[in-house]
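stage 2 :: seqdesign
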């Protein structure tokens, strides 16, 4: 996509594909199809309804919903009306929702289900600013009011409007430097900041991805599973629209394992936790396998690894290796791939560190995790793997047109290019602080380039801890190792200013329940198990195993099992699952202090 406005790109795609399948969504347990032409008509109607409502050019419109076709239609319709989509995570806390509505001065908002609707109703009681609430799900019970309508009724109002001429005039005035969206970052400290991304940012990313992903075709199928309010899924969806893909929308990410088998996507965005969960399930089953089954599995994984590595590095594949691979493929590898639907070409992955062992395992079974790096401020991707000659454990090379350098003093990754945000909405001081004097974005992450020119993330600079003995600790690396264990759901590493490293551990209760049953440990409630010696000993052993390769000063000397998961609603984690350490440390201060009492 050259410097062509996204609104015009969509119009061209509707004309090109017409009755071809575009969007698919679940209704009553069945998949329903929506063609390009049908989606285009809805986008046109929605733009008319927004203009009829009095929405001005570059006015901010809120979208607060789970994934569904209406989300994308609202996004594209908002753009066609010349307005700006301001996105809110569907599970965002009420406090942060209200902050975003006020900060972005949102008067009109689209909501998904009852949960989002109830939050907005509560906020409306205190805020007279909101003039229109449009509800996607018609099963939501709404108040009868001029301010509150269902999405279908809003579209009907748009179809009856006579504002097409006004819309065409707005489209003629559109600029590539216009804001396309506000995406609020759910930072680990302070209030969210609205990242301003332009149509020029989107066009730049489309060009860069066209060069990096040449094998993507209009016959590919993408499963829209990560929240569309997140920059990765949002930019990926718009990019795939530019390439003419079909979409399947999944409104409940917890059902991904079930529906991936139905959809059988060829591409889909993931976060590392998705891959880690599958990896843990496979290795749990392996623990229970017979010795001969374990040997067959090991043979198959090694054969798959040897074969795919030679393909990746464009080296000769011997007839013997080809034979070994065909045997492994028929016995094990094909079955393993079915856990991701069986047709995956690649899975873009970002958002957190991905363990090299997990990445290599998936590559061995024939599933390419296209690991990359970026931020909301860089319109998602700044780097990602190439399809050949890449190195595991890195996040790939910079996209075409993206400059990256490492700060000589701090080791911080600095990024510059056409994908970088315009700034933070109504926050000039924070915007200025986010850039170097020569225009590079300060990422807050530490990294190095290897001899292959690929970026390797070393740590999150802002979260580096220093023990009282002067040792520096990167807590995310340790937490990543812990969270890959099937008995651990979440972990928080502590130790800043302390004499050693400790951890808060949230158990995976499904694994714990199974362990208790197998070992005939009686209990009334699962939480009662956490004080049992057998359970404490189990976790001590698991933690020791997970951290075996870490330096001595990084080892966890003490840990505490905490019964309740960290949640977005309690402000303990962000919607992207990053820990708000200050909140967690304040809440569990007594428990943390007790781990250092002696």
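stage 2 :: out
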């Amino acid at each position: 996509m050259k410097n062509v406005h996204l609104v015009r790109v969509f119009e061209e795609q509707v004309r090109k594909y017409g009755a071809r399948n575009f969007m698919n969504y679940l209704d009553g347990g069945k998949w329903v199809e929506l063609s390009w032409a049908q989606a285009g008509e809805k986008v046109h109607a929605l733009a008319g309804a927004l203009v009829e409502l009095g929405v001005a050019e570059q006015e901010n419109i809120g979208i607060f919903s789970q994934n569904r076709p209406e989300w994308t239609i609202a996004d594209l319709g908002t753009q066609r009306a010349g307005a700006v989509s301001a996105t809110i995570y569907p599970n965002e806390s009420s406090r942060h929702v209200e902050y975003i509505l006020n900060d972005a001065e949102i008067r009109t908002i689209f909501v998904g289900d009852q949960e989002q609707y109830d939050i907005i109703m509560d906020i409306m009681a205190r805020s007279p600013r909101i003039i229109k609430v449009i509800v996607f799900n018609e099963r939501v019970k709404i108040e009868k009011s001029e301010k509150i309508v269902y999405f279908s009724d809003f579209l009907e109002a748009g179809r009856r409007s006579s504002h097409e001429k006004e819309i065409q005039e707005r489209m003629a005035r559109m600029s590539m430097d216009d804001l396309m969206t506000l995406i609020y970052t759910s930072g680990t400290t302070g209030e969210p900041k609205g990242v301003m991304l332009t149509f020029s940012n989107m066009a730049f990313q489309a060009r860069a991805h066209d060069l990096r992903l040449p094998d993507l075709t209009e016959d590919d199928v993408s499963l829209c599973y990560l929240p569309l309010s997140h920059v990765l899924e949002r930019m990926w969806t718009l990019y795939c629209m530019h390439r003419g893909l079909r979409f399947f929308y999944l409104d409940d990410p917890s059902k991904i394992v079930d529906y991936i088998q139905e959809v059988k996507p060829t591409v889909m965005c993931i976060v590392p936790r998705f891959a880690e969960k599958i990896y843990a399930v496979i290795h749990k089953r392996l623990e229970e396998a017979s010795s001969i089954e374990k040997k067959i599995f090991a043979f198959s994984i090694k054969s798959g690894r040897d074969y795919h590595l030679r393909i990746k590095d464009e080296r000769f594949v011997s007839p013997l290796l080809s034979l070994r691979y065909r045997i492994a493929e028929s016995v094990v590898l094909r079955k393993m791939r079915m856990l991701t639907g069986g047709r995956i070409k690649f899975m873009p992955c970002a958002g957190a560190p991905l363990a090299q062992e997990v990445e290599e395992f998936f590559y061995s079974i024939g599933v390419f995790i296209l690991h990359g790096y970026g931020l909301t401020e860089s319109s998602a991707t700044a780097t990602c793997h190439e399809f050949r000659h890449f190195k595991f454990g890195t996040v790939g090379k910079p996209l075409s047109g993206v400059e990256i350098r490492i700060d000589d003093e701090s080791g911080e990754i600095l990024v510059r290019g056409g994908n970088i945000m315009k700034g933070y909405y109504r926050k000039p001081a924070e915007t200025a602080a986010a850039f170097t004097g020569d225009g590079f974005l300060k990422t807050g992450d530490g990294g190095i380039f290897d001899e292959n020119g690929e970026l390797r993330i070393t740590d999150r600079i802002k979260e580096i801890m220093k023990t009282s003995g002067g040792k520096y600790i990167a807590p995310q690396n340790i937490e990543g190792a812990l969270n890959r264990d099937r008995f651990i759901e979440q972990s928080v590493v502590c130790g800043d200013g302390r004499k050693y490293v400790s951890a808060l551990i949230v158990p995976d209760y499904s694994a714990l329940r199974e362990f208790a049953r197998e070992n005939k440990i009686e209990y009334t409630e699962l939480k009662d198990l956490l004080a049992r010696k057998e359970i404490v000993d189990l976790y001590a052993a698991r933690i020791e195993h997970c951290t075996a390769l870490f330096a001595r000063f990084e080892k966890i000397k003490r840990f505490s099992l905490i019964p309740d998961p960290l949640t977005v609603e309690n402000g303990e984690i962000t919607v992207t699952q990053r820990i708000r350490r200050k909140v967690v440390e304040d809440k569990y201060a007594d428990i943390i202090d007790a781990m250092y009492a002696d």
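stage 3 :: structure notes
- The longest strand covers residues 441-449.
- The chain has three domains: 6-174, 272-343+346-461, 464-594.
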